[in-house]
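Sample entry (534 residues):
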Amino acid sequence: MPEGFDYIIVGGGSSGCVLANRLTAESAARVLLLEAGGKDSHPLIHMPVGFAKMTTGPLTWGLVTAPQKHADNREIPYAQARVIGGGSSINAEVFTRGNPADYDRWAGEEGAEGWAFADVRKYFLRSEGNTFLAGEWHGTEGELGVSNVPQPQPMTRAFVQACQQRGIPYNPDFNGAVQEGSGVYQTTTRNGRRCSAAVGYLRPAAKRRNLTVRTGCLVHRIVIENGRATGIEYAQDGKRVTVRAESEVLLTSGAIGSPKMMMLSGLGPAAHLREKGIAVHADLPGVGENLQDHFGIDIVAELKGHDSLDRYNRLHWMIWAGAQYYLFGAGPVTSNVVEGGAFWYADRSRQIPDLQFHFLAGAGAEAGVPSVPKGSSGITLNSYVLRPRSRGTVRLRSADPKALPVVDPNFLGDPDDLKTAVEGVRISREIFEQAALQKHIRKIRYPDESVRSQAELEAYARQYGRTSYHPTCTCKMGAESDPMAVVDPKLRVRGIDGLRICDSSVMPSLVGSNTNAPTIMIGEKAADLVRGNR
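Predicted structure, serialized as tokens:
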């Protein structure tokens, strides 16, 4: 007889860690959390600056996109975490939650009843443990530690001043009543260390007897019997294991992993499943459709001196930074690299910002981003369209669970996205041309002076744009009348009992910000839905 639990959570990322914590608060609930990756033992995970070293490597799945036909047919690296804590263990720790209008759109236009901002605000506040801000927009007692960057880099401060010189006003709180403006991001850190969902939610729950956490588990399929999800089949250390879920299976494998798991289990577009030799349990045409992501485009400048984090690439400075951190918990290692940012407009007729900017106090920090000549120091400014119109897909490569899926974000597939993205590059360049930054800049290297016309800027966007690590919406929630909705507003999978999807894949559309805080909010609300509190 297979081992049994009340709830099986498939995926130990941001939402999975939240569910593991909240569901095991009831001592009678037996919960199993399965994660394909390993434990979060790598020291770089816990150093805020370590983000820059983790956009490739063993803590990711090694995904690349399908050739992007609107982006020079490039196969773009597509970092997705493979470690407990998921994206919250390797991301840039930027804490933003989107504009209230995003959630009102979900509820008012996209069939997600109960997900308006007035409905979800309490979950944002419940999760947030802010060490600086409080009041109606911020929680202070939540598991997710949120704090200010302790010592913003000189170039970050210059960036915020340059934004103001460009006409983008200072905003001390992107998660308050007003989103627009420029400033220094708050980060998901606590006491100079990353506060991932694994640290904030899972560690406190791990001591509970009713929680079992298993890492290194590659899930093969959800077991479906008579229209109900009854368990999970997975492989660990070369052995095939089946476990039973007495109450529910909760899928939290993310916007790439969750549709893959659904399709491997016979839940998805029937024709695609049959093509891969998979028996169809439920024809759900929306599974793997509606993929949305932020397509980020970087500009890079070389500095006259060494006033950015690049100086710590030199051995003696690196040793000094390490000593500061280990002895005093201070210095550049406490930087998340992506310290500054802005929300602004490509089109001022829009009611809310349509562009987001991330300022990196260094150059070449992430995989695929241009750098400056060796021995020099640089800075980077990334911009992206907040609510892209382009839609992509996630498809199975084969019926082999070990095979990576085919991910096609269809970047720049809608002409409006390209138009808005180019305006983001223009504004980025204008920010770098302001006095506060110009006195530090030797030369803007990418794009160089030869790139000026609309056509040249479009070509630059196609050549250098990349993922911003925000895939969403591939198992979207919606009304019963929407044939592409995979789950209902209570996150229950259509046509299958005992199965919910509780991660970023259920978003009906992409929110206008980074996606970790919204994903944690989804986990918080999902826990209430599972427990019947809503």
